[in-house]
């Protein structure tokens, strides 16, 4: 006799990927307060995984957290990534999504979000390592990019994808691998026009690429914002998630005691 399917999990599930050198605990401290109101406790579940650590050979094998790496900055619309590393990270994210769906959560209630590397798929992590014979070596791991790559290559329509200061880390040749179901996943993209690490052109081009695929991409540009995440973005992000989950009537939002501004390590 076949086992009964698991009962649907209550509310939505938000998977948020941190940038390189960071941790799930750190980005969770920035994001979780926006979903901490009592009315949301049983409606939105949050997950902040931490990337594995890896030795960085170009800096004496220093070990940092990273989803995947890139060896040049700034990131432009034409920057080439190591797609094998990206796809390995995507496989990990897909595993997390699959596990959540197996527990009973509807794909339409799952949101994949990332900052920089985890927004380099679609958050990005940026670490400046200085030294080595007076040379400057830059190592990037982007979560925002990872978020968008994971959504593009997932075979089902999800609730949404949110990218903070990210870019698309895959060549346009991957367009054929994006299923009709994945193209229905809506995207919210934040990017600062003063971003010197992942250039505004990279974010803008990424959103344009998604629209070429027939996807819906809401692009929010901030003229004076650099490579960081600010309270205004998080407030809009919170409301976007709640609207897509059909949650209304939240009269007060629990926020950090001070203005939130997260930057990748430099």
TrEMBL record:
InterPro entries: AB_hydrolase_fold, LYPA1-2/EST-like, PLipase/COase/thioEstase. Residues 12-121, 144-241 form the Phospholipase/carboxylesterase/thioesterase domain. Pfam families: Abhydrolase_2 (PF02230). The chain crosses the membrane at residues 137-155. Keywords: Membrane, Transmembrane, Transmembrane helix. The keyword 4Fe-4S does not apply. It comes from the Eukaryota. Gene3D superfamilies: alpha/beta hydrolase. SUPFAM superfamilies: alpha/beta-Hydrolases. Belongs to the AB hydrolase superfamily. AB hydrolase 2 family. PANTHER family: CARBOXYLESTERASE OS04G0669600-RELATED, LYSOPHOSPHOLIPASE-RELATED. This is Phospholipase/carboxylesterase/thioesterase domain-containing protein.
């Amino acid at each position: 006799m076949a086992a009964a399917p698991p009962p649907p999990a209550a509310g939505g599930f938000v998977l948020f990927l941190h940038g390189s050198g960071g941790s799930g605990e750190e980005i969770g401290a920035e994001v979780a307060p926006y979903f901490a109101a009592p009315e949301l406790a049983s409606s939105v579940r949050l997950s902040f995984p931490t990337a594995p650590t890896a030795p960085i050979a170009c800096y004496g094998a220093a070990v940092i957290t990273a989803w995947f790496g890139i060896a040049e900055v700034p990131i432009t619309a034409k920057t080439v990534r190591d797609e094998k590393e990206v796809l390995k990270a995507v496989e990990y994210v897909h595993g997390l999504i699959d596990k959540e769906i197996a527990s009973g959560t509807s794909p339409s209630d799952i949101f994949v979000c990332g900052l920089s590397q985890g927004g380099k798929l679609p958050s990005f992590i940026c670490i400046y390592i200085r030294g080595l014979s007076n040379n400057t070596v830059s190592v990037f791991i982007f979560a925002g990019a990872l978020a968008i790559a994971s959504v593009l290559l997932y075979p089902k329509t999800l609730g949404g994808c949110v990218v903070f200061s990210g870019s698309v880390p895959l060549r346009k040749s991957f367009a054929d691998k994006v299923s009709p179901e994945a193209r229905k996943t809506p995207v919210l993209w934040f990017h600062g026009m003063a971003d010197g690490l992942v250039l505004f052109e990279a974010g803008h081009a990424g959103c344009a690429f998604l629209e070429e695929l027939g996807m819906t991409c809401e692009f929010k540009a901030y003229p004076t914002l650099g490579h960081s995440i600010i309270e205004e973005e998080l407030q809009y992000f919170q409301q976007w998630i709640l609207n897509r989950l059909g949650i209304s009537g939240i009269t007060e939002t629990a926020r950090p005691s001070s203005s939130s501004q997260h930057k990748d390590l430099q």
